[in-house]
Amino acid sequence: MSSDLLVVENLRKQFGGLKAVGGDDGLSFSVKEGSFVGLIGPNGAGKSTTFNLISGVLEPTAGRVVLAGTDLANVRSSDIASLGLGRTFQTPRAFMSLSVLDNVLVGAKSSGENLRSVLLGGWRSSEPALIEKAKAALTRVGLEDRVTETVSNLSGGELRMLEVARQLIRDPKILLLDEPTAGVDPSLQGKLSKILTDLHKEGRTLIVVEHNLHFLFSIADQIIVLQQGELLSSGTPQEIKTDPKVVAAYLGDEHAA
């Protein structure tokens, strides 16, 4: 049986008097290595905040996150990526004046992916093997014909694909994707579904925050449901579809099957 790659234990995050994640008792769940987890819930349920806590963007008020046996409380946020965690954001992050290829190389050369890493220009001296790896990542997400183009020419959906490529070049153990289908047209959604399914088949661990439930339920093997920052339910897609608590709080009768 696969071991737990990620453990979220009694996690809580408060902003002033607002209990954004964990309520009074804390949020706890685990993700087994090689699994494909969907993280869903109404707007304001704490999904993106949970991602921010896991990836070190935010510090928890209480509780802990353990990745591959390492307590992330003892790891600088800039070093978490080196432990094998990749993450995309609701709003795609890219250097719009650089080429598609250079954006991937910047990500490969610097876990910080900040303006300083661009100004230092270390990615310009990338060795041929890394350049080929970047091109392979872009081919995988369907951007092989856009390699030399400036990122500002990409559509919203293509920017989403670029974000995935920027993470794949690092070969992460676990990949967190925040709303990957937002702004993506149906044809690209089909391509994204295949990309994620293939990554899962290869043994990659995925956690996906997504409002497109039809997309997510067709490819994930486990669903975690949050409500007001707390765990409402967890199970297979079919179990979640028929859970009365989830139907009443979030899905509605049209998703029950």
From TrEMBL:
Q: Which residues form the signal peptide?
A: none
Q: Where is the ABC transporter domain?
A: 6-253
Q: What is this protein called?
A: ABC transporter ATP-binding protein
Q: In its keyword annotation, does this UniProt entry include Cell wall biogenesis/degradation?
A: no
Note one Pfam family from the annotation. Answer: BCA_ABC_TP_C
Molecular function as annotated in GO: ATP binding
Q: Which SMART domains match?
A: AAA
* Ranges in a coiled coil: none
Q: Gene3D superfamilies per the record?
A: P-loop containing nucleotide triphosphate hydrolases (3.40.50.300)
Give the source's domain of life in one word: Bacteria
Q: Which UniProt keywords apply?
A: ATP-binding, Nucleotide-binding, Transport
